[in-house]
Structures are given as structure tokens and as C-alpha cells.
Amino acid sequence: MTQLILEQALNGLQFGLMLFLLAAGLTLVFGIMDCINLAHGSLYMVGAYFVAAAAQAADSFWIGLAVGVAGAALLGLLLELSLFRRLYRRDHLAQVLATFALILIANETVRMIWGAQPVMLNAPDALAGPLEIAGFSYPAYRLVIIAFGLAVAGLLYLLVARSRVGMWVRAGAANREMTEALGIDVQRLFTAVFVFGAALCALAGGLLGPLLAVQVGMGESVLILAFVVIIIGGIGSVRGALVGSLIVGTADTLGRALLPTLLRATLPADTASMLGPALASILIYLLMAAILFFRPQGLFPARA
Amino acid sequence: MLRHVAAFTAALLLASSLQAADRIKVGLLSTLSGAGAGLGVDIRDGFNLAVKQLNGQLGGLPAEVIIADDQQSPDVARQMADKFLKKDKVDFMTGIVFSNIMLAVGPTVFENQTFYISANAGPSQYAGEQCNPYFFNVAWQNDNLHEAVGKYVQDKGFRKLVIVTPNYPGGKDAVAGFRRYYKGMVAEEIYTRLGQLDYAAELAQVRAIKPDALFFFLPGGMGINFVKQFVATGLSRDTQLFAPGFSADEDVIKAVGPAMMGMFNSSHWAHDMDNPENRRFVADFQKEYGRLPSLYASQGYDAARLMDAAVRDVQGKVEDKAALRKALEAKRFKSVRGEFRFNSNHYPIQNYYLRVIGKDASGRVTNKSMGTIFTNHSDAYVGQCRMK
Q1: In A278-303, which positions are buried (b, 16+ CB within 10 angstroms) versus exposed (e)?
Q2: Alpha-carbon gap, residue B354 to B266, rounded angstroms
Q3: B201 at A interface, C-beta within 8 A
Q4: Domain spans, chain B
Q5: What does the pLDDT look like over A72-129, one tens digit per residue?
Q6: B357 and B367 in contact (C-beta within 8 Å)?
Q7: In whole angstroms, what is the distance from residue A128 CA to residue B236 CA?
Q8: Chain A residue numbers touching B204 (CB-CB < 8 A)
Q9: B223: Cβ–Cβ under 8 A, 6 or more apart, which residues?
């Protein structure tokens, strides 16, 4: 029983931390630059393809991951300089239209280059099995993912809460005009944040590649969850993104693992297992609705 | 007025040219993108190979194969089928992989009196009460391969079992088929979302149950991910994996690798079957595409050859639906799986075999035939079928 609870808790943690990698970039771009970036999920997809292609060329997952993340950061830089810079001052509708167009362009481009079939990305052989500690065993690769997620969360905490750049970022999120008036080059700050967000996307895509599938359209489903996360956590808040991600990740895992078992007491197996995940996602959206109602600024608002 | 007359004449000309049947049009609608794409691609390649071997003809007439991707979505599939039936006016349709898509598309195809030759999806609905003169399945009824595994698992004496399958018509057929022959305890039936790729939560449940065998039916990318993640949890030491041939064929083996070795699975066909048709098919397929064919490819290949034989039988007069139906029912071609014939519900009566994954003589990880599980086996629904 402890094995089951601990294992499911780790599963929820692993999923939540990967959501966090996506939500952190999204919340900063949305919170600081007031820019709705629907193409955030496309950066995740393109990042995963970069990692898969580089890993195949180098015949090493880790080299592939490093090269792929760097490639996605470069792509983020180009996108920011060419497109997003022009979008910040436009209204949200223009941003939604432009970034939705980016989704379509990204999906078709990937389809043209890599084809419609999923691309294979395998975890390193050393991590293909389980890790056992005192009778408890858990897939080694998932532990690595958790380690990466925690490391990024720690790094972001230091960066945002303890460094000078982080202070600028927080200031930008709280009050953009005042920050500009204090002589901070917000333009460059924005570029840096956007590129960092793109790199985190690719990291998430590359790490999840061996567990899921590197395929066209993989970004859209996860993007919706990332938006839910930042609404729950508070737009512009990295801490909020972390808490929101863990809530959503845990709810999703519990919905798939626990609810069907509970529902089976009264319902046939197929209905119970259909209802479980549905109820879990309803739970997530209910939570979002409740937060929008009682605390419209989210759990950890960035703007005071 | 003049314009109307001209348009009318043109329409008449068009109609008369269609009746002459100077070529055979086939609408191949399959899943060619996303995690299920491997199956559709193999069906398509198998079908195309057969047409190529027949010099681009079906039944002596030039063949035109129109290919469309259903993106594993019933809505997209319905649109594509409408285009095939109304705009292209195809003589045959084939190619659908997933039963939920088959059930969504079927009614329009049958209403249009177009013959559908299924190279994969074999839903119980179309084998039983909703059986239709325009539906032929050249592969199997969905339950069949699962029944064969169920029989084997039962005979081997496994008594505590978990079943994992997607929550869709094909998945329910799988459970029904397996449990028709497996009589031991099923500790848990786990239904997952169709297209799900992360099985962490389900595998944790399996570990808590500690079954001695696990039967899973997860076609395409789902199965690839499941087996990889199953190995990663370390469950393979205590729990023996069983699957129908769908989840243990070349597409999955290629992706998962040696971790699949020793897995038993069932099929109506295997690439090492020794008959002249199969030897030619396997050799030509490898030459053409540079990989071993899967059972899906063999099914696509047989679908084309069934059409070929039937069109030849009616001497190209495919408008005579009654004659064409008789010709299809007669099945005058030699299948790569050896002998089989159609039952009264247009599903096959055939043998089912046991295969095991291991290394062949050249050191390649692949399936080996192990023996026969069922001889001349039909399906459980034929009794409910009142074929018109």
C-alpha cells in the first residue's frame, strides 16, 4: 500500500514538474509582457523534435537534449526579435490571432520536415529499468525527470527571488511603466525572458519525449493545462506556477488511479474508468472556476 | 438555357463514362498520422504492393487507389468517406484501422451500396446484428486474436490476471474475446483513454495487484509506450506479458527492441509462414520498403488481392452488385496466411497461431511461429447475423 501511494505521489510530482517547466515560461511572458502566447505549446513540440533529431544524430540522449534546448532557445530569440516584439503593444486579440497562426505554421512545418508519424526518442539505456531502494522501486528515468524539474524550480527561485535580474523581472511583472521609468532596459529583459521560456519548453519536450511520443500536435493538449496552471497560480508568478502545476499534476494522477477504483464499487469497470479521468479534469476546472470567482488574481498574484 | 443544356449533356457524358468501368477506383481511408499511424502505413504499403505486383491493375482493369488520412478522428473520417463516395465515386473502400472509426463511417458506405473490404477493423457489431452485405472483413473479427491468447493463457495455468485496454469498441471486443476462453481470475480490468501515452498511474496499480500475467491490447504507439514503461517499472520479473499480435508485431518490436523477447502473442498470419504466396509477399515487401511486413501489411495485401479476384470474376462489371458480392464471398485467391473462407457474416473462418518474440537465425529480434491455437475458428457473433 505504501508502495502504491508513494508511487502515485511520485507520478503526480513528475507530471506536475513537467507542467511547471511549461507554465513558468508562459506565466512570465503573460505576466510581464502582457502577451498571450498560444504558440508556447508549439515551442514545446519543436523543442522535442530538435532534441529527438539531435539525439539521433549524436547517438546520445544527453547531447541531444543539450543541443535541442539550445536550438529551441535560438528559435525563441529569432521569434522574439522578428514577431513578438511587435505584438507586445497590440491588444490581446491580435496576439491570439498571430500566435494561433504560429501553431498552424509550426505543425505543418514539422509535418513537412519530419513526417506525420511520431519520431522515436529513447531514454538512455542505463535509465531504462527501475531503481530500487529498500524494497521500493520506481522507474529510474522518471526519477531523473523529477530531479530535473526540482533543479529548474530551485534555479528559478534563486534567479527570480535572489538575483538582480529577477528583481527586474518581478518589478516588470508588478508595474511595467514604473520599471521602465527607473531606467531598466525592458526590451532586452523581455527578450531574455522569452528565450528562457523557450528553452524550458524544449527541456520539457525533450525529457517527456521518451515517455510520450514526439509527434505533431503534442503541444496543444498540454498548453491548455499550462494555462489552467497559471490561472490557478496567478499570472506572472513563478511560485504560483509551481503550486498550480503540482495541484493539477496530482489531481490528474489521482483521477486516473484512485477514482476508477473507488467508482468500481458501484459502476462497471469501463464506465468507472471513463468517469474517473473526466471527474478529475472537471475537478481541475472547478478549482479554476472557484479561484477565478473568489480570488480572480490567482493564489499568488504577481501584481499587488 | 443553352448553358443548362450544355451542363446537362456534360453530366450525361460523365455518367455514361462511369458505367463503362474502364478502371477500378479504390478509396483507401486509413490512419496515417499520429500515434496510430504505423498501422495505417503498413496497410497502405501492403495494399500498394499487391497492386504493384498486379502491374497496377485490379481484376485486369487499371487500378486507381485514392489515399486519405483519417487522423484517427471519426469526424475527419466521415468527411473523407463522403468525398470518396460522392465526388470520387469509388468502387471499393478499405483501410480503416480503428473500430470506432469503422462504426462511424460504415452506415454511409453501406447506404451508398459500396463494398467495404476491411483490412483491419472487425467490430462485433458488423459481425452480429448489424452485419451487412456490403461489409467484408479480410482480417478477423476483433475478438478472435484475443480469444486465442485467452485460450493459451488458460491452458498455461495462469490464474491471476490484469487486463489493460483502451476504452473504445475494439477494446471492449478484446476483453469479451479474451474472457470467453480465459476462465481464471481477472483481478482488474483497466480501461485507458484511446491514444493515451503515459501509463505511470496504471502501472502503479498493476504493481499493487501483483498479477502473474498481464494481458494488454494497445495497438500502435500506445503499445510501444506501454511495453517500454512496463519494462522501466521492473514489473517484467514477476509478471508475464501477453498480447494479441497487434501489440507484438514489427512496429512495436522495432521501437522497443530486445526487451520484448519471450513475449507470447497470437496471430492469424506470421512472416515465417511457409507457402509460396507468403514467401513472395515477404520478400517483395522487404525489397520494396526495406523492413519486415507486419500483420497489418499482410491484411492490406490480402484486401487488394480479394478485390482483384472478385473484379476478375465479374469480368469488370462492378456495377452488378449482386454478382460482385457473390464473387467476393467465393474468395478466389490464395491468401498469404494459407487457407481461409468467409462465413455467412462475411468474416473469415481460419486458423489462429501462437507466436513468440525471439532472435531468428540472423540475430534479428522478431516473431517466430510456435503452433496452432484454433483450427477453422469463426466468431461468436455469426449466430446473431441475419444477412440480407
Answers
A1: ebbbebbeebbeebeeeeebbbbbbe
A2: 5
A3: yes
A4: 2-140+273-338, 144-267+352-377
A5: 999 999 999 999 999 988 899 999 999 999 999 999 999 999 987 788 888 898 888 8
A6: yes
A7: 12
A8: 4, 7-8, 11, 257
A9: B216, B243, B246, B247, B248, B252
Give the pLDDT confidence of B79-133 residue by residue, as tens digits: 999 999 999 999 999 999 999 999 999 999 999 999 999 999 999 999 999 999 9
Say if residue B350 is exposed, middle or buried (CB neighbours under 10 Å; 0-12, 13-18, 19+): buried
Q: What is the pLDDT of residues A255-293, one digit of tens each?
A: 877 787 788 778 887 777 778 778 877 888 998 999 999
Q: What residues of A are in contact with residue B229 (Cβ under 8 Å)?
A: 139, 211
The matching CATH number, chosen from 3.40.50.2300, 3.40.190.10, 3.30.1330.10, 3.30.420.40, for B2-140+273-338 is 3.40.50.2300
- All residues of chain B having their beta carbon less than 8 Å from the beta carbon of residue A118 are 34-35, 37, 221
Most A CBs within 10 Å, among B32, B33, B76, to test the A interface: B33
The ipTM assigned to this model is 0.85
Question: Cα B272–B276–B279 angle (5° rounding)?
Answer: 40
CB contact under 8 A, B232 and A141: yes
Which pLDDT score is estimated for B11?
55
Q: Please name the member of B172, B204, B208 whose beta carbon is closest to the beta carbon of A270.
A: B172
Share of chain B above pLDDT 90, in %: 65
pLDDT for B338-356, tens place per residue? 989 999 999 999 999 999 9
Q: For residue A256, which residues of chain B lie inside 8 Å, CB to CB?
A: 201-202
Residue B99 CA neighbour count, 13 Å, CB half = 23
Among candidates A118, A129, A141 on the partner chain, residue whose Cβ is nearest the Cβ of B221: A118
Interface A-B, measured as beta-carbon pairs within 8 A, has a size of 101
Inter-chain contact B192–A273, Cβ cutoff 8 Å? yes
Query: Which B-chain residues 132-191 have CB contacts (< 8 A) with chain A?
Result: 167, 172, 188-191
CATH 1.10.3470 matches A2-119+139-294? yes
CATH number of the structural domain B144-267+352-377: 3.40.50.2300
Under-50 pLDDT residues of chain B: 15-18, 20
Cβ partners under 8 Å of residue B221, min gap 6: A118, A213, A215, B34, B35, B36, B37, B38, B197
**Per-residue burial over B95-107, b = 16 or more CB atoms within 10 Å of its CB, e = otherwise:** bbbbbbbbbbbbe
The answer to whether the beta carbons of residues A21 and A202 sit under 8 Å apart is no
